[in-house]
Fold each of these.
Amino acid sequence: MKKIQMVDLKSQYEKIREDVNTGIQEVIDTTTFIKGGKVNDFQKNLEAYLGVKHVIPTGNGTDALQIALMVLGLKPGDEVITPTFTFIATAEVVALLGLKPVVVDVEEDTFNISIECIKKAITPKTKAIVPVHLFGQCANMEAILEIAKEHNLFVIEDACQAIGAKYTFNDGSKKQAGCMGNIGCTSFFPSKNLGCYGDGGAIFTNDDDLAARMRAIANHGMVVQYHHDLIGVNSRLDSIQAAVLNAKLPHLNEYIAARQKSAAIYDKAFAGNKHIITPAHFASSTHVFHQYTLKLVDIDRNAVQAKLKEKSIPAMIYYPVPLHLQKAYQDPRYKAGDFPIAEKLSACVLSLPMHTELDDEQMNYITSAVLEAVK
Ligand SMILES: *Cc1c(COP(=O)(O)O)cnc(C)c1O
């Protein structure tokens, strides 16, 4: 049996080796390392895939979030609402820009930001909501967009884990993750669902004005060369990463299908087990399974993880500490117990291997080992 990994990028690469190598070689041969044709091609290809007007490639997903917040013209102390159960980047950029992160609790079933908690957190200083489509499933965007409209707030979607997920609104219309709010952000970190071979990210928007300004901010605030209209940053996707992404984007739908197939096998194997709650499927969103995350009930999670490790099966805790309990984010506004759902989830979640290359033999081995470990 092939070695089981959380993510198997090598096996995935073997199948697209020619395309990746040819693309990278072309970049080297033309020495257009920054802002080359490959980056423009990828931008157009991704705009077409998402059905969004503007894709702005960036150096990584964290920068994408930062640039999205920079363009809104917010002032120090303005409040930005984000979930407490997520990866740190979301709150980090808010804090770095001198804005005030206001964290709220999540829904126990979907792990995504709680609508009721957003409503309670809104003050006259609230300027934006940053929902995170955690683990590959969209947050309740219908409700979030409604709240934003009512209170005149910006919505910036953190779609770093959810590229390719589709959301269906009550009127039947469908949109891609990251293409519903004012701005969407994604990451091409190697292990993400559409990953490059280094760092990369992108911003999505249908707003021409925001797009033009974010494109400038990502490139030193420059519109005409060496004329700086805005204070910017240096955050560009490089051409070698764009070449990798051009080779992988045509496979994104099959990659998503492969993840969903493995998730369905896990779902079936664990259904009805009293110690395991499998991921909830939110009716309005497809799930692209960046992670397949179990909730363990009445059983020692560390012991389960250790038993899996004995059988060479990695399993990870995403995320062990919610934002409001992180050392760097200590704040007199928050204390342990304030966000009970996030705290409960941090104590019981366990993510199993999830990637595009899991085969039947590996899936059988993992599911049997998990069932054995929770006995
Ligand atoms: C990966 C990730 C980011 C950051 O992306 P980088 O490309 O690593 O900077 C931000 N938010 C979430 C939810 C992520 O999963």
Amino acid sequence: MQTWTARNVVLGAGAMGAAAAYHLARRGEPLLLVDQFPLGHDRGSSHGAARITRHSYADPRYARLMPEAFRAWRTLEADAGENLYLRTGGVSFCPPELDYVARVEASLKAIDVPHRRMSGQELRKSWAWFGGPDETDVVFEPDAGMLSAARAVAVQISLAQSAGGASTQILENSPVQRIDLDGERPTLILENGRIVAERLIVAAGAWTARLLTNLGFPLRATRQQVLYFRPTDVLNGLPGRFPVFISKGAEVLDDFYGMASFQGQGVKVARHGGPDVDPDSVDQQVGDEYRATVRRFLKKYLPPLAEAPIDRTEICLYTVAPDEQFRVGPLPNRSDVIVASPCSGHGFKFSCLIGQVLADWATHGATDLAVDFWQL
Ligand SMILES: Cc1cc2nc3c(=O)[nH]c(=O)nc-3n(C[C@H](O)[C@H](O)[C@H](O)COP(=O)(O)OP(=O)(O)OC[C@H]3O[C@@H](n4cnc5c(N)ncnc54)[C@H](O)[C@@H]3O)c2cc1C
């Protein structure tokens, strides 16, 4: 039985774990990054070509953090020498009886981010993609856009390796069976050994609640189904001609989002939210009922896509915390164990900043960023 010891152990090499490893290595901190699957796998929450980024949040606390998140992405891009953010503009819209867009606009005003309030009619005039009633409430944010998802995760892991050299260790295909917190040091139990950490960052996504059973709040793993459409006019579906969009509906499971075709993948559209799932046995097929649900949405709000062929599908997992709030911070009474469960389907845009926060917690036991509301 082998025993590894490391000052910093990061459990999970998805968006959050990769960002934590990058920021720790950037500070000269030795680390061991462990994942149950090979790096870049597609079984969790961080695979796929792209994710939406935006300042457009109805919750002003998240909107206030977004300028810092954008800065963190720019730092990463500078370190990596490549672009990971693509500015496409973005629209958030809802029926007039909902106050979602009004709250988004209030948040954007409060952080002084350029935006324009529009009606459904103006939306249709601006982009022929969109349909929907004239009275639809819309806000346009020019700085919204797309982030390269799988690429950003890979870049941060390779930067952690180049910055850390031998002091950055990576253990792939190494499922952690249990986290032992009975002893002085947090210890990860593997099939063929154990990892003893001075500080442990748990960024295990949909598996977090299995590894930390007494978090004091529920975490649900849910199955997300994503469709990539091949529009008749392919060029029109490219970034620059197709803003990212967030559609807020009146009912639960009535929210949809989408983005332009990225790296030839097709126009991405999906419903926000889905059924609870066992993260170890996830059905990879997208059913007809779901396809029909998305086409009904498109028929109303993006008619040119409603009959378009579906080029490919993708399955992905959300880790949903109560009220879709993030949970990031040390375990109560264990400052050497830091939990990062910032998902609920909107964590990627914050991942680079969350990596910074996790490294702050690990190295200083505190962070200057206004993230108290994420604490456990
Ligand atoms: C379809 C979809 C669309 C999304 N769209 C957006 C968007 O537009 N904008 C946005 O900001 N966010 C979006 N998100 C959310 C965002 O992608 C996630 O918040 C983020 O990827 C979560 O990363 P993570 O590192 O927490 O999880 P993961 O990437 O799942 O990483 C967790 C890792 O832990 C490993 N692990 C778990 N258990 C163990 C164990 N026992 N032993 C070893 N390793 C283990 C897993 O193998 C995995 O690699 C979307 C998510 C989905 C699914």
